[in-house]
Every structure is written in C-alpha cells, then in structure tokens.
Amino acid sequence: MTRYVVLLRGINVGPTTRLPMKELRGMLEAMGGEGVRTHLQSGNALFDHPPAPPRWLAVDLEQRIAAGLGLTIPCIVREASDLRRVIDRNPCDLTDIDPARFLVTFLSGAVDAEKLKDLAPASFAPDGFQPGEREIYVHCPAGVQKTKLSHAFWEKRLGLTATARNWNTVTKLAALAEAE
C-alpha cells in the first residue's frame, strides 16, 4: 500500500462548496482507500491505497464529488512521501517568517520555468515566491488574503490546477503521514 495526501481546493469556504469531512472519508474509502484521516475542514486527507498514479486518484475523487454532491472541486493527490521532499527542498529561510503567512502552492504538474522568466519579483512586493519542482513557495508578509500570488494567479500563469496550504498545515500533514 502507498500513502497518499489529498488536497482539495476551495471547499468549506462559502455556502456553495460544503463538503463534510465524513463524506470525503466515505468517498476515499469507496475508492479503495484504507486508514483514511482528514485534517482540518479545508479538504486535507491522508489514505492508504494500492499503488496508482496520483492523477488517476485525483480524477476519480473529482468525479465522485461531482456525482455525489454536484460540486466541481479540483483535487491534487500526492504520495505522502512527496510532502517530505517539499519540506526538505524549501528554498526559503523561515527564521523570521510567520508560518501562517508562508504558503506552498501545490500544482497538478511540473513548474515550467519559461512561464516564470518574465515575472518581476519587485512587482509583487512585499510578497515573494520561489519555484519548486511541482510547487511554488510563497511568502505573504501582509497576509494570505492580500497576496497577488494566489492559486488563481498560478493557475492562469502556469495552466495547471493549484491549491495552497500554509506551512503549518504542510508540516502537520507530513507529520501525520509519517506517524504510522
């Protein structure tokens, strides 16, 4: 069995995107997931499943959510071990950074450096970003609600599905994934 992490985008942030975690757990179990656990109410889950391409699992879950609840919810699924890579390869010094204002924007595919080369970092100040392999590390000192570097910005720029988690959530999910 392989442990996977599910990151749903935009659930439980308004009245039209309600997805109870009990229903999410049920959908993951119906997909063959075992040991399903959720973290917070914002669409974070861990589960064990026979090895499968994460994209297939994401599409399966998206289809189940659409069929069961009538919601179009983008899903990103990663092998849980990938969270350790994201943490270990963080290019930013977090010494004086509030982890609630430091985001990892997870992407459905690899970062295309060509699509980033014309971005002028100064135009986003005080925010900053560093590309990773399949994620963008974003510092939002004025708060995540005020940043121009939102998941929507990255989706438009890169043509990929994107969802962001703050550093506290990323490290907690990694700890939960590694605990068993």
UniProtKB/TrEMBL annotation:
| Domain of life of the organism encoding this protein | Bacteria
- Where do the coiled-coil regions begin and end? none
Pfam entry (one): DUF1697
Task: Return the protein name.
Answer: DUF1697 domain-containing protein
In its UniProt entry, the species of origin is given as Actinacidiphila oryziradicis
